[in-house]
């Protein structure tokens, strides 16, 4: 499970009965938690898609060398929510993890990197897992955008929504985490608790504490789902 910052990681830790223990590995520090029938490794992977990808990749590589590869990576944390579908303190589970600003500007508008002939801009989490996670937590299901620049104007929010009408939230790590997981052949999902609306910058409107509490509550319900999810359900 990869959050961006320690405050998000600690919100997830609070969902577990025991605090777990720290494991220092090359390139990454993990927090190992015990669930009812398995272990979870948690890391504060850094803010933004590049650092998140590097950190998660280090964890995936270390696990493989320990002969204990992961079967799933979860990107989790706070996010901006598109109103009215994703109000502050609500939860969102991604059925699409989409890089919203990876591409090129042109006179005719934004061109995603796929139209330039490179890579990909969307990862699709396992549908059965998305459904089970949303059912357990009460989260909305939709696209979660990954951006490198937090939206701060109504016009940018409207442009993103026009290009991604199914978007419920934007955050800064999901696509990087998904790229790392995909490179290791591991499934990915993303769950976000909304801390602020996507739109004009308004620091007074942030509700980070409420979002972190929602994240803790969500992981209390999500842990059994993650433990029982079988990757072969979706094949
Ligand atoms: O300074 C601002 O206007 C501002 C507005 C929202 C968030 C920030 C952050 O620095 C937090 C980035 C951090 O939290 C996630 N996050 C939370 N809200 C958003 C958002 O509206 N858009 C993108 N990311 C958001 C993100 O995943 C980062 O980890 C600053």
Automatic annotation (TrEMBL):
Alphabetical keyword list: Glycosidase, Hydrolase, Menaquinone biosynthesis
InterPro entries cross-referenced by the UniProt entry: FL_hydrolase_MqnB, Nucleoside_phosphorylase_d, Nucleoside_phosphorylase_sf
CDD domains (alphabetical): futalosine_nucleosidase_MqnB
Domain Nucleoside phosphorylase: from-to ranges: 45-204
Coiled coil start-end: none
Keyword Repressor attached: no
Annotated GO MF terms: hydrolase activity, acting on glycosyl bonds
Protein purpose: Catalyzes the hydrolysis of futalosine (FL) to dehypoxanthine futalosine (DHFL) and hypoxanthine, a step in the biosynthesis of menaquinone (MK, vitamin K2).
Protein name, entry field: Futalosine hydrolase
Source organism: Streptomyces achromogenes
Classification of source organism: Bacteria, Bacillati, Actinomycetota, Actinomycetes, Kitasatosporales
